Amino acid sequence: AQPGAVEPVAAPMRNLTWGQLNFLHTTDTHGWLGGHFQEPQYSADWGDYISFTHQMRKLADDKGSDLLLVDTGDRVEGNGLFDASTPKGLYQYDIYAQQDVDIICTGNHELYQHYSIEREHNTTLPNFKENYVASNLDYVDPETGNRSPMAQRFRRFKTKNQGLDIIAFGFIFDFIGNANNSAVQRVEDTVKEKWFLDVLKEKPDVFVVTGHVGLRMEEFEVIFKAMRQANWHTPIVFFGGHAHVRDARRFDSMSVALASGRYMETVGWMSVDGLKKTGDVETEASPTFTRTYIDNNVLGMYHHTGLDESSFHTDKGREVTKMIDSARKELELDRRFGCAPRDYWMSRARFNEDGNIYKLLMDEVFPDIIVNEDRRNESRLAIMNTGGIRFDIFKGAFTRDTTYIVSPFVSEFRYVPDVPYEIARRIIGILNDGSRIWASPLLQSEIFHVDNDVPPRPNKFMSAPEQQAHPELKRDAADNLVKKLLTSSAGLPPPEKPEYMAEPQRDGQTPLRSQPDLIAGYTTKDDFGDDGDDTVHEPLEFYYQANAFQSDINFPPNHKEKPETVDVVFIDFIQPWIIPALKFSGGDYSDKDVLKYMEGTFTSKLAEWVGENWQGDC
Ligand SMILES: Nc1ccn([C@@H]2O[C@H](COP(=O)(O)O)[C@@H](O)[C@H]2O)c(=O)n1
């Protein structure tokens, strides 16, 4: 682990089950190759992971089984190691490439910016060559406009020890926010293509579908159905991501899916037994599957390899730890901007309660930072999506690294000037509408005049991915909240507590407080049961948050008086929802009415604010 990281402590562990074919899975690492400095249970770095995979491959060789490494994208954006350099990723791509990943695909974060698509194309692709698979993603040459597959559409290979015949795919969900030097083909169209249908006629021992796709998203369903229609008898193992959660799903008796969390907190383990090898007597495979979510720390890695501090680490692993350490120094990631006076949580505190990160932003940060000198005296509503905040703030040092961990995006503030307050006040309620209005194609065409070909963009995409993946159990409560929001006069969440914020959700987990020494962490419940986490944890609390939050700035001091007009200021990412929300509120606005509000990104403004306001000791 990195120097300065807090040491993990031993915790009750569950063992891994090995099979004929085994997988280690990373996803949504978002630049956290240095591990977590303030959370010991996730403190292993990419160098430790390299040592771990080396030792696990040796174990596989000893057992005569096979081990494959999979990564399902979103390797970039979300940590100083990627975001703090100019250009972004100056050190990250090289550090990441020290790992031998057998199957790798692309996430949406590799595609938001023109620049990161170029890096994917000219750096990650050559680094991983035939291991990179892009089943529904094309690269568009910015000079010629020519469109060609980002990488091969599928990969066929034999495993090292048993010669198992594998056909692997690499999908991305139907993402539409990509820069124009890439093109994502809809999954439902891809599975009708000749090349895909031809591959399904083959009879490998296993299909491996990697995808930057949440396990419960429709895209995996579509792929599974298309595959099973063409091929009834081949086991299929899916590896997904994007949702930032630990999850496993059973599609049928021969097909399962695994998702392995986020931010290098989790290394996913999947084992498959009962496979039939090509050439075996013509009987059907009857595979069995196991899954484990490994907490990313060296004590767990020692446990699973049966090694210790003196025998576990490899030269290459140590070398990569040094690469990370020196990159962090070059980037001055430990430079302290201020000291957070307490913890601020994204979902471990209620939306409107002290200690909630959005409340901090609404009440303290926005009124200071959302200022355009020429319009300083105008009343304004400043709106941001909760998904724009990516991580909690822990009490203690707030560093250059923390800034990017909390807010990695290059988003800026825009505004629509002089909107009648009667219209503007309704926006926040509509953004947080828990009913299905945003998903209605009729509403899109009739009210928003959006071309019917444009798929609706559900408003939950403004919230944090972890919440987007959260079970729909809160829909009724969310609808009630919306009704209140739409009828409340300020458009702000009403003062009384909405039902769905009243009690924490534990993701259906069993409380384990009977064991006093447990560290709080993931207690996953998936289609396999509730024994998936390698470390036995005390459950974390989870409070549902709104999609977007709002600060009323420079309002008349007497709260009963309301301004005639306000500037509607918002983070650029949510423009696709702001304009329809304005229309829905009775305002005839379009993208043409949107102007830049001020210089600087939210990220830079947050860092300045911390520097000016959190100058205590830590
Ligand atoms: N510029 C951006 C980009 C993304 N978001 C938020 O992130 C969510 C997607 O996150 P994944 O890591 O799962 O891809 C998206 O739904 C937004 O909430 C953002 O706020 N600004």
Summary, kept brief:
The chain has 618 residues and is α/β, with parallel strands linked by helices. It has 20 helices and 23 strands. Helix 7 links the parallel strand 9 and strand 10.
What can you see in these coordinates?
By secondary structure, this protein is of the alpha/beta class. The chain folds into 2 domains: 310 residues, 4-Layer Sandwich (Purple Acid Phosphatase, chain A, domain 2), CATH 3.60.21.10; 243 residues, 5'-nucleotidase,  domain 2 (Alpha-Beta Complex). The strands form 6 sheets. It has a 6-stranded mixed sheet with strand order 6-7-9-10-12-11, covered by helices on one side. A 5-stranded mixed sheet has the order 3-2-1-13-14. Strand 9, helix 7 and strand 10 form a beta-alpha-beta unit. Helix 1 packs parallel to helix 8. The chain is globular and about 80 Å long. 50% of the residues are buried. About 6% of the residues have low confidence. The site of the ligand Nc1ccn([C@@H]2O[C@H](COP(=O)(O)O)[C@@H](O)[C@H]2O)c(=O)n1 has 15 residues, from loops. InterPro entries: 5'-Nucleotdase_C_sf (IPR036907), 5_nucleotidase/apyrase (IPR006179), Calcineurin-like_PHP (IPR004843), Metallo-depent_PP-like (IPR029052), Nucleosidase_C (IPR053828), Pesterase_C1039 (IPR014485), YHR202W_N (IPR041823).
List the helices and strands and how they pair.
Elements: E1 21-26, H1 46-63, E2 66-71, H2 80-83, H3 92-96, E3 103-104, H4 114-128, E4 137-140, E5 147-149, E6 154-158, E7 165-172, E8 182-184, H5 187-190, H6 194-200, E9 206-212, H7 218-230, E10 236-240, E11 246-252, E12 255-260, E13 266-273, E14 288-295, H8 298-305, H9 309-312, H10 315-330, E15 336-340, H11 357-369, E16 380-385, E17 396-399, H12 400-406, E18 412-420, H13 421-424, H14 427-431, H15 441-446, H16 465-468, H17 475-487, H18 499-502, E19 520-521, E20 538-539, E21 548-553, E22 565-571, H19 575-584, E23 595-601, H20 602-613
Bound molecules: the ligand Nc1ccn([C@@H]2O[C@H](COP(=O)(O)O)[C@@H](O)[C@H]2O)c(=O)n1.
